[in-house]
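Blinded run. Sample ID left blank on purpose so nobody reads anything into the name before looking at the predicted structure. Input follows.
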Amino acid sequence: MIRRRVLLTLLAALVVTGIQTASHSPAYAVAQISASVDFYDELSPYGSWEHISRYGDCWVPLDVSVGWRPYTVGYWVDTDYGWMWISEDPWGGIPYHYGRWAYDSYYGWVWVPDDDEIWAPAWVAWRYGDDYVGWAPLPPDAGWESGSGLTINVSVLDRRINRSGWCFTPVRTFGTTRIRSYVLPPSRNVTLLSRTRNVTRYEVYNSLPAERGLRPEILERATGRTFQRYRVVDSRSPNLRNVAIQGRTVEVYRPMISGVRERRARFAPEGDSRSSRAMIRRQESEQRRFDQRMRQERGVLQREHQRELGQQNRDRAQDGEMRQRQQAEIRAQQERETQERRSLDERRRIAGDERRNQGEGRGRDQVQDRGQRPPRERGQEQGQTQERQDRGKSQDKRKDQSQDQGNAQNQDDQDKTHGRGHGR
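Blinded prediction complete.
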């Protein structure tokens, strides 16, 4: 039995430059690391690598709950690079600081690696206004150039981001370590996108991306609270998944990763039956919790609608507009439940397939160890492999068509919503 190998190859090196200001402030050590890290094995125990024709090989997290979205299991801290996401997911040190996220109509949220990965405190867009803060993963086409910043204009980000990808929370709860408890149901995004404006603004700081759009002082004035500012320092321990907060510093390993797709071509998963069993149990548990979670979201939405209807000082036109908006939120909730059920079924299928594949792999190893020929002839295996590939291509085509239709509908809804919002 071949044991799992975790490849972590570090090439080239570490240059540390100390900068001491004249005002006796602490010295800033900026580590510029050029490295090559193979993180496919790092993420495989927590998900599956699937080929999606639009983006190539993507990572599908399986160790997640019903209704999960990126940047929800953890909390935000203010740093010298902007708001940094401190993940509580065991795999969070990689996908939240490298690459981008995309929503697939079949798999749900998938992580899309780039060939050259650059660390950031969080690759997200920000919205703010009307006592709400919102964030969403940047889309895969939002690249980064060290000399000029994001390769996509911020003004078109809203058309690139899936509407349900935005997470909104009241300003008064932002910055708490229990932020997940205060994130509003995605169906409310129909309204909240019109009440907020995009404030995303990336700059270059110490040769790395820094987000300066959501300024802490604005939130401090709105909440009356002071946010602790942390300084990000480089960890010399080559561990991509762990982040250590010590006093007023955040210690993180953040190499520049090159040649990701080239390594993907040579990657061959070796299977972890213990992880697959755990993921299957997790998916079965989430399947049972699905209806309960959706009922909770519908309950929150209903209570918010009742609160709005109970407010006074509305004329007939305002009342009609509010009811139309509430109907749009109800439709968005119904669409979300359909998408979430489909994605949950797909993740459960993937976990089951991996478990069966591992069992077949062990059976072949045992047969070969005894010097016997595997039960399937090579020609049969090749034919079945080709059949699976053809089915995969057909599935990719159907998924792309479904996603194009869904994105087109979301875009029409967003354009209408934003048209009303910007006219206010």
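Unblinding after everyone has recorded impressions. Residues 14-266 form one domain.
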